[in-house]
Design a protein that fits this description.
The chain has about 190 residues and is mainly α. The chain has eleven helices and no strands.
Length: about 190
């Protein structure tokens, strides 16, 4: 005798995700990092706290996804033109870090990660990271344009530092043509000797 076929549960309401993420972004801008708690997001979004906890295990993960959802692969799809691709990548990265919510969250997230043991599934962090897109751009570059002895992770870390400096300390570091200057420096790091 066969078991009766179980009907799948209720379909997941995807509007819950967007309402919670939008509420987190609004709270970050209006009230700051410390006030952006799961309970505050629940009250602001009308989403029950338990539904939020089912999607994000803590407010840190919720804030990270709300503020740094990753770059759109379409906006930085590699063409093989290394300079052009890096320019599009840096522009997209600067835009992602320049949003009011990202600026409001950055210091709190940095402080949290300095003091916490970040153990969790790496796929969660890769999903929000632009590192894989950067590596795709390097792989698409014509042969001989990227030094094979250069560690792309080191170059990405330097690029991330430049992006953070330009977005979080912009008034102190304002320069003409910031994207072009950053791309020029990255190309110098990548060129074969």
């Amino acid at each position: 005798m066969t078991e009766p076929r179980r009907r799948p549960g209720r379909p997941r309401d995807t509007s819950i995700d967007e309402r919670a993420l939008a509420a987190a972004r609004e709270l970050l801008v209006r009230r700051g990092f410390d006030a952006t708690t799961i309970q505050a997001v629940a009250e602001h979004s009308g989403v029950h706290a338990s539904a939020i906890y089912r999607r994000w295990p803590s407010r840190i993960e919720l804030i990270e996804e709300a503020t740094f959802p990753g770059l759109s692969p379409l906006s930085v799809r590699p063409t093989g033109d290394l300079g052009r691709d890096l320019g599009r990548f840096v522009r997209a990265y600067l835009v992602a870090f320049s949003t009011p919510a990202a600026r409001a969250a950055a210091a709190g997230l940095l402080a949290h990660h300095q003091t916490s043991d970040r153990s969790g599934p790496p796929e969660v962090y890769v999903r929000m990271s632009a590192r894989p897109l950067f590596q795709d751009i390097l792989r698409a570059a014509p042969p001989g344009t990227v030094d094979p002895t250069v560690d792309p992770d080191d170059v990405f870390d330097m690029l991330l530092g430049a992006v953070l400096t330009r977005t979080l300390l912009f008034s102190a570091t304002a320069r003409a043509r910031p994207v072009e200057r950053t791309v020029e420096m990255i190309l110098r790091l990548l060129r074969p000797l």
